[in-house]
């Protein structure tokens, strides 16, 4: 058991170290980006007769969910004092790095880095990004429950156990180390509920993107069964993987095939979805990253909002 824990810790540290290397080395960033986009294009190229209009109609709400709803959720729980515009920009920048890194870890590391550049302590930055991820996971589970998907007992117990551990640890720290706790984000129930609602809205936009991709490859949308398959595949997204070749993608292909979508169209729809992720990521996040490298953006104190008091 001890050897297993040590191996897991070493593996996690290795992944973080590799992602940090990619983030801070411009040549590796470009190479990883080209490889990731090339794989997505190669996958979609194997599926003929792709229509553009349904894909675009599905992409528009997804772009709003990813680059508006998710940053607003982060801003709602943030105690950094930065403006909504700052969070929108930093989140968009992080998504490009997240898509080229395993576990989407590059996005989290970039957000922590951006918070640190505004004089936020590293512990507070890590806690803030972790809390945002946690609220997103709660929203995902809520969205799955709304779709009517019965969660396996192992998944449900694991999720509830993790939530209980986080809550107990937070209460212990707040009671025994009040000075440390004041540097951590403590959202009020209202803010937490708002974050969950925004997360559910984001999940709905992913479903819209999937519907557009299925229509684009020429397959009829299988109705309410698709909602069930989508909810089940999102659970598989909790397992580690890389964009376009993750357990979630595999589960989604298998689920679509199980409800009557031909294997070729199922693979094509999932591959097209993975490719469509790149369009707003490169147009929005890529442009902002390029402008940042060119020195267009600097951290200005005047842009910061008054930091909210811990709830």
Describe the structure in your own words.
The chain is mainly alpha-helical and 311 residues long. Helices cover 75% and strands 0% of the residues. The protein has helices at residues 2-24, 26-45, 52-77, 84-99, 105-116, 122-146, 153-176, 178-181, 189-216, 224-236, 247-258, 263-293. α1 (2-24) packs across α2 (26-45). The model is unreliable at 1-9 and 301-305 (pLDDT under 50).
What is the 3D form? globular
Low-confidence stretches: 1-9, 301-305
Which structural class do the helices and strands define? mainly alpha
The number of distinct β-strands equals 0
Largest sheet: none
Number of helices: 12
Taking the alpha carbons of the first and last residues, their distance comes to 39 Å
Strand fraction equals: under 5%
Query: Helical residue percent?
Result: over 70%
- Rg, nearest Å: 20 Å
The overall pLDDT, averaged over residues, is 77
- Listing every helix as H and every strand as E from the N terminus to the C terminus, the arrangement reads HHHHHHHHHHHH
């Amino acid at each position: 058991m001890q050897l297993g824990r040590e191996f897991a810790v070493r593996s996690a540290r290795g992944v973080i170290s590799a992602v940090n290397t990619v983030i801070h080395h411009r040549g590796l960033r470009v190479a990883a980006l080209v490889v990731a986009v090339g794989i997505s294009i190669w996958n979609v190229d194997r599926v003929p007769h792709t229509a553009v209009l349904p894909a675009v109609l599905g992409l528009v709400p997804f772009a709003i969910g990813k680059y508006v709803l998710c940053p607003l959720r982060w801003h709602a729980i943030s105690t950094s004092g930065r403006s909504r515009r700052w969070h929108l920009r930093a989140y968009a920048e992080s998504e490009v790095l997240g898509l080229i890194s395993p576990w989407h870890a590059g996005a989290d590391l970039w957000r922590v880095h951006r918070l640190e550049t505004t004089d936020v302590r590293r512990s507070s930055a890590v806690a803030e990004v972790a809390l945002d991820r946690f609220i997103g996971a709660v929203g995902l589970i809520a969205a799955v429950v709304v779709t009517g998907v019965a969660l396996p007992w192992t998944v449900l117990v694991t999720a509830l156990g993790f939530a209980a551990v986080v809550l107990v640890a937070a209460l212990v720290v707040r009671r025994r180390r009040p000075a440390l706790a004041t540097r951590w984000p403590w959202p009020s129930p209202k803010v937490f509920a708002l974050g969950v609602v925004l997360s559910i809205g984001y999940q709905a936009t992913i479903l819209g993107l999937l519907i557009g991709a299925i229509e684009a490859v020429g397959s009829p949308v299988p109705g309410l069964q698709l909602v069930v398959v989508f909810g089940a595949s999102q659970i598989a997204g909790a397992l580690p993987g890389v964009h376009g070749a993750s357990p979630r993608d595999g589960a989604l292909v298998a689920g679509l095939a199980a409800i009557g979508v031909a294997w070729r169209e199922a693979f094509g729809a999932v591959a097209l979805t993975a490719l469509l992720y790149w369009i707003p990521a490169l147009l929005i996040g890529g442009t902002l990253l390029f402008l940042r490298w060119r020195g267009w953006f600097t951290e200005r104190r005047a842009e910061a909002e008054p930091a909210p008091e811990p709830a």
